[in-house]
Structure prediction request, 548 residues.
Amino acid sequence: MREAEFREFHTPASGIFFRAKRRLLSERTPFQKMEIYDTASHGRVLLLDGLVQTTERDEFFYHEMLVHPAMMAHPRPRSVLIIGGGDGGTLREALRYPVRSAVLVEIDARVIAACRKYFPGLALSFKDKRAETVVADGNRYIRETDCRFDVILVDSSDPIGPSAVLHQRAFYSALKRCLRPGGVIGAQAGAPLFHLEHLRRKRVFLKDLFSYSHYYLGPVPTYPGGLWCYAFLSDQVSPLRPLRKRVPGKLKYYNTDIHRAAFALPEFLKDRRR
Amino acid sequence: MREAEFREFHTPASGIFFRAKRRLLSERTPFQKMEIYDTASHGRVLLLDGLVQTTERDEFFYHEMLVHPAMMAHPRPRSVLIIGGGDGGTLREALRYPVRSAVLVEIDARVIAACRKYFPGLALSFKDKRAETVVADGNRYIRETDCRFDVILVDSSDPIGPSAVLHQRAFYSALKRCLRPGGVIGAQAGAPLFHLEHLRRKRVFLKDLFSYSHYYLGPVPTYPGGLWCYAFLSDQVSPLRPLRKRVPGKLKYYNTDIHRAAFALPEFLKDRRR
Prediction:
């Protein structure tokens, strides 16, 4: 295929564009439209329903900030559950720790298959013997499983669209049931600049459900607005407690200074109820 | 004019696009090409030589983070010098403090004139009786002036291009001469994701020139990579000293938690000399 341009609208009248060297895949799975492009600027880029999910160039921002705040704050994470995350990046970061098992529940087997082929830097993690992949609806899985986890990572897509259910109170209430005592949840929460009202509503029920409920922020250059929001949720573990002494390996974005700094919220995102 | 699309390349093969409702101005000044568009997504947008300088929607990220770290750390800023900043946004933020005078040195009078007309939310600051506007080359001004300032804010364009001289050692050395005892410099330093090697080289001479020399970061959604770097420079004032008790008015991004957090640097931007 010759050079092609693709774009993602972040508002009805603005967004980002990429010139692709070629399109590697275009497929309609049972759940969504999946495309993978090879670009000079960002390496390989995965789109689901036209939205950039992952680029080889900047995936580390997102995956490090989704995973390490929860994992570094938990004193001894042994069992990890990942909801979504079919590209394998979240799994890769979680497996940096001496966990016994990491269960990844992804609804779309085609995403996993495609990422194993085209994103080896992320999806190599699926080969780790501690990893277990379950192809299932994450929302249903957490209601039915008897397993309990030290850390749960919610690597869903956006609060507006097919993943909407993964951003609602009932889902977080069921997630809480799956935590072991002292457990921690790290969850992607959306774009503070585009989903601000959603984030405000969500904060109300998260604070109701968890003793420690904190939003935190980090950059993701190719996500809308370039700034991304995550949630740290726990009944026993504060995100600002003493952290593990060492980060697990050589990271590109996260360190313990960044960890603490990420919980400082800008004025426009402060909780006005206080 | 009918609806038009304009774009800025952030790499040779990717960038951002805007659909403009209309183009309000297109002019070749003695120094640069200046365009102003009206957009549904970002309000009015100023471009110089094709690069987005300011949008009404997100200018507060940049202007608050350029100005307030220096102004809040200085115990008693009375006199302020701004190099560049012809849109008036930096001046507006500086004038929130009880300063006696703020001198703005902008090389391009046409930028000031256009922003007074099209960006009243920023350029209203030019009407403040404490503001003095000097149309001159900032690099030359600081070599010739006998004035000394408590705070100097460098609101230049990028390190690559016509403003390159404003990012070099000789310029900072001359700036230092213009500081009053206990003075502080706040300077825009570029895109950490795109000017990383430049930032590393610059750090070496900044550390050599100033006792306190710190990079800090903040988001600017419409700038390349969405993440922006600034420098805090002083011989006597640490950026993490006790700050002023109150921020001057109702801000949208900056607060004192954000101030401290902004100085936490990601792994990829850490100083490897230590």
Remarks:
- The first strand of chain B starts at residue 4 and ends at 11.
